[in-house]
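User: Hi! I have a protein structure encoded as tokens and I'd like to know what sequence might fold into it. I'm fairly new to this, so please keep things simple.
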């Protein structure tokens, strides 16, 4: 039986049930999984405040994820010196830099604005 998630105990019970039926092929259980996942998502959005990543950490993560070097993003930030200044937190990102990083590296603007 599917019930609302009203507290941490309900949340843990629901997550446990999701784990139990995660790999099921049964249509009814897949439907249950969809509903339970939605309930957990809503509970987490309300009770677990997830802050966006630090802008510099977001840039470093994307550079690593894409296998880039600092020199590869120099054109997005205004040159090699700017890259070093930005990544060492000596200079703030400008609106133009944020737009470039968002457009070219697909880093969400929300992650770049702090």
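Assistant: Happy to help. Inverse folding works backwards from shape to sequence: for each of the 114 positions I chose a residue that suits the local structure. Here it is:
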């Amino acid at each position: 039986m599917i019930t609302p998630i009203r507290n941490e105990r309900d949340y843990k019970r629901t997550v446990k049930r999701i784990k139990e039926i995660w790999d099921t092929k049964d249509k009814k259980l897949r439907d249950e999984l969809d509903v339970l996942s939605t309930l957990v998502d809503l509970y987490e959005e309300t009770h677990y405040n997830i802050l966006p990543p630090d802008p510099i950490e977001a840039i470093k993560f994307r550079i690593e994820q894409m296998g880039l070097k600092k020199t590869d993003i120099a054109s997005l930030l205004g040159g090699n010196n700017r890259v070093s200044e930005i990544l060492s937190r000596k200079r703030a990102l400008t609106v133009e830099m944020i737009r470039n990083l968002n457009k070219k590296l697909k880093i969400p603007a929300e992650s770049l604005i702090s």
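A useful reference point when you look it over: The chain has two domains: 8-47, 55-112. Feel free to ask if any position seems puzzling.
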